[in-house]
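Dear V.,

Thank you for sending over the compound details. I've combined the ligand you provided, zinc ion, with the protein sequence from our construct and run the structure prediction for the complex. I'm sharing the raw inputs here so there's no ambiguity about protonation or stereochemistry in the SMILES, which I know was a concern on your side last time.
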Amino acid sequence: MEISEHTDADVFLEADRRHKEMRANGQTSLGVTKITQPPPMGEPKPKFAAVCSQCGGPTSVPFKPTPGWKILCTENGCYQKSKGGV
Ligand SMILES: [Zn+2]
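Below is the predicted structure of the protein with zinc ion bound, written out as structure tokens.
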């Protein structure tokens, strides 16, 4: 994979060099405007169907349910109750 690494570096340098040339010539480089976008907030996490071990109701958890693990739903407040009871 050494060749591809060198190729990538060469391409980058070539693009960088051309960019500077364009600026030197007073040209605007169309299509190379870098738009930095922040990662989308509230990205949906994968959910796994699970059964609450407290009330037996269906729920979903953001992790893969492990057999033997205690799953507490938030739908019926089992999770909140386990945290010290509201
Ligand atoms: Zn529950």
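A first observation: DSSP finds two helices and two strands in the chain.

Warm regards,
I. M.
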